[in-house]
């Protein structure tokens, strides 16, 4: 009796999933359509689905009046440096924690694990005081330094490196290879998938990071894309939805493209960080 | 034998800490020091004016904590956050679980497309997404237009004290369901198919298999997903910051928002106390969830 039931459930599942998919993607479609509409058409009554007189004016406004180049460069520079720092530093300490026996190892690992659970709101205020005291507010230093490593990244690299066979490293040690050589020539090349996952999650976090850059950057030349968009959307462009939607398209498109291309690593990252 | 061994260990310790050094320095300055200082700040009367001389402030004991807890604005923020969590989490978990079960039910075609589509909102910037949703939820926006076609006159969602919070919950559900779907899918795929097949052989129907086999085996994964999403929802802030500025009439002013505002007014000590109160709440909720789910297994 279960067999026919199973079969009949299939089309229903597809219908529900497809309806859900349309609802889920509708906001993105509405964003793209809106970004090509003129200000008059955006709230036209009755509303239009397809732009009646498509315009690229909302996008050119970002390029000409709004320093898009600066914001994009800032976002990209900050994200790339943050990713490189995390890949290098997290894998270095991850290697020590996974493959070396040393005094203080347990404490270090314990502190890393505990701080994974500390919410960002706790460190926010003193972080501002420290960065202000260092005199680096409103510089790339303020945007990058606090994020160059993250405990979760250390954990991810360590977990992955635990699976590298010790015999491989011992063989290299007997051949007289230094730890640095073993790390760069044997361990890192084996960590490709973990590095990809960490790199992508870090890039994503940095690209979308908003609250800290908002507080740490004061002059427009230091704004990242989300900071610029948030300030415009609560400030002088608050009702200029065409411009704001174009800005949203410009922020979302690169990361969405990256996601579609590299989705395996995104999903792996969630599963690893979540499940281990 | 013991001497070369301890020699070797000393050498390894040196090498290991050299490898750890860059991390340790950054971590100490930007993570450990802030965690320790915000405890310190919370027992003082530090304000923005003391920023260059953070050690010249006065010790006030638990006064800041008492001030926060008795502040009606904080109490309101606690209620707002609680509503957000209590409504948002069950909806997100149910949807994420439903999607994971549907995608794991043996359908093959278009499966990657569904997965990408439902996960897409997760990778997008809150700020960008808030702009879209403000446009959708505007008085003459897409949602009210759709409601209008079935004869319902929708409210001005984000400017209504009744509907602003539900609107933010709707957006949070849209942004977070994908995460749970992926976690639950991984959990479902880790369940050996022969267990369900055995149950089917014993005559268990679809519903019965789900209730008595799949869901109990999925419990650890659901716990993990639940904790992950609770910790995020308890700190909700950015959506409100961009979409409603905490309004109208503080109806979307969350605990993190309160902390942020207190910080913005320059009252660093009070903000630190508020952040530690939140930390305690978040830790307590996580522990409670672990307890509850462990007991019911």
Which features would summarize this protein structure in a list?
heterodimer; A: 276 residues; mainly alpha; MetI-like fold; 15 helices; disordered N terminus; B: 297 residues; 12 helices; globular
Helix count from the secondary structure assignment of chain B: 12
CATH superfamily of chain A: MetI-like
The greatest inter-chain interface is formed by: A-B, 95 and 97 residues
- Unreliable spans of chain B are none
Structure, explained:
The complex is a heterodimer of chains A (276) and B (297). Chain A has a single domain (66-239, 251-275), classed as Orthogonal Bundle (MetI-like fold), CATH 1.10.3720.10. Chain A is 76% helix and 0% strand. Chain A has 15 helices and no strands. In chain A, helix 4 packs across helix 8. Chain A is globular. Chain B has 297 residues and is mainly α. Chain B has two domains: 2-42, no CATH class; 63-295, MetI-like fold, CATH 1.10.3720. Helix content of chain B is 73%, strand content 0%. Chain B is built from twelve helices and no strands. Chain B is globular. The interface between A and B is large, with 95 and 97 residues.
Secondary structure layout plus pairing:
The complex is a heterodimer of chains A (276) and B (297).
Chain A: H1 2-35, H2 39-42, H3 57-64, H4 68-99, H5 105-116, H6 120-133, H7 140-144, H8 151-162, H9 166-174, H10 179-190, H11 192-208, H12 211-216, H13 225-234, H14 241-261, H15 263-275
Helix pairs in contact in A: 1-14, 3-14, 4-8, 4-11, 5-8, 9-10, 11-15, 13-14
Chain B: H1 2-42, H2 63-70, H3 72-103, H4 111-119, H5 126-136, H6 142-149, H7 164-189, H8 193-201, H9 206-234, H10 238-243, H11 255-264, H12 268-295
Summarize this entry quickly:
The complex is a heterodimer of chains A (276) and B (297). Chain A has 276 residues and is an all-alpha fold.
């Amino acid at each position: 009796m279960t067999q026919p039931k199973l079969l009949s459930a299939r089309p229903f599942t597809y219908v529900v999933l497809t309806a859900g998919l349309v609802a889920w993607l509708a906001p993105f479609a509405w964003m793209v359509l809106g970004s090509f509409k003129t200000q008059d058409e955006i709230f036209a009554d009755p509303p239009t689905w397809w732009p009646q007189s498509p315009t690229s004016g909302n996008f050119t406004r970002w390029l000409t009046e709004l320093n898009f180049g600066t914001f994009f460069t800032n976002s990209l520079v900050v994200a790339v440096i943050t990713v490189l720092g995390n890949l290098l530093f997290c894998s270095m300490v991850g290697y020590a924690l996974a493959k070396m026996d040393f005094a203080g190892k347990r404490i270090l690992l314990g502190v890393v694990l505990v701080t994974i659970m500390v919410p960002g709101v706790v460190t926010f205020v003193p972080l501002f005081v420290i960065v202000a005291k260092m005199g680096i507010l409103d510089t790339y230093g303020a945007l990058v330094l606090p994020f160059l490593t993250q405990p979760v990244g250390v954990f991810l690299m360590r977990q992955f490196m635990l699976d590298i066979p010790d015999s491989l490293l011992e063989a290299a040690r007997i051949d007289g290879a230094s730890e640095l050589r073993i790390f760069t020539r044997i361990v890192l090349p084996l960590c490709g998938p973990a590095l990809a996952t960490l790199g992508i999650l870090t890039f994503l976090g940095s690209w979308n990071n908003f609250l800290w850059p908002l507080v740490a950057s004061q002059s427009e030349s230091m704004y990242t894309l989300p900071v610029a968009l948030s300030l415009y959307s609560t400030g002088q462009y608050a009702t200029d939805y065409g411009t704001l939607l174009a800005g949203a398209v410009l922020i979302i498109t690169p990361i969405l493209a990256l996601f579609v291309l590299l989705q395996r690593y995104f999903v792996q990252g969630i599963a690893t960080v979540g499940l281990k | 034998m013991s001497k070369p061994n301890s020699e070797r260990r000393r050498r390894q310790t040196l090498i290991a800490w050299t490898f750890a050094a860059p991390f340790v320095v950054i971590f100490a300055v930007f993570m450990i020091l802030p965690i320790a200082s915000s405890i310190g700040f919370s027992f003082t009367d530090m304000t923005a004016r003391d920023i260059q001389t953070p050690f010249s402030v006065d010790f006030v004991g638990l006064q800041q904590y008492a001030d926060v807890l008795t502040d009606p604005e904080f109490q309101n923020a606690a209620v707002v956050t609680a509503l957000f969590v209590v409504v948002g989490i069950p909806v997100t978990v149910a949807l994420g679980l439903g999607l994971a079960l549907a995608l794991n039910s043996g359908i093959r075609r278009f499966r990657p497309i569904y997965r990408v589509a439902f996960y897409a909102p997760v990778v997008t910037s809150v700020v960008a997404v808030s702009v879209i949703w403000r446009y959708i939820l505007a008085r003459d926006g897409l949602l009210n237009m759709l409601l209008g076609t079935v004869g319902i006159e929708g409210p001005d969602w984000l400017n209504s004290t009744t509907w602003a919070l539900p609107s933010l919950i709707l957006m949070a559900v849209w942004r977070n369901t994908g995460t749970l779907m992926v976690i639950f899918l991984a959990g479902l795929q880790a369940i050996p198919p022969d267990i369900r097949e055995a149950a089917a052989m014993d005559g268990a129907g679809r519903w019965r298999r789900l209730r008595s086999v799949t869901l109990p085996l999925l419990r650890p994964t659901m716990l993990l997903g639940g904790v992950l999403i609770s910790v995020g929802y308890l700190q909700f802030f950015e959506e409100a910051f961009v979409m409603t500025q905490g309004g109208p009439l503080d109806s979307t002013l969350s605990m993190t928002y309160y902390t942020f505002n207190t910080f913005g007014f320059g009252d660093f000590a009070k903000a630190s106390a508020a952040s530690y109160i939140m930390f305690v709440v978040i830790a307590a909720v996580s522990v409670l969830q672990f307890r509850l789910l462990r007991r019911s297994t």
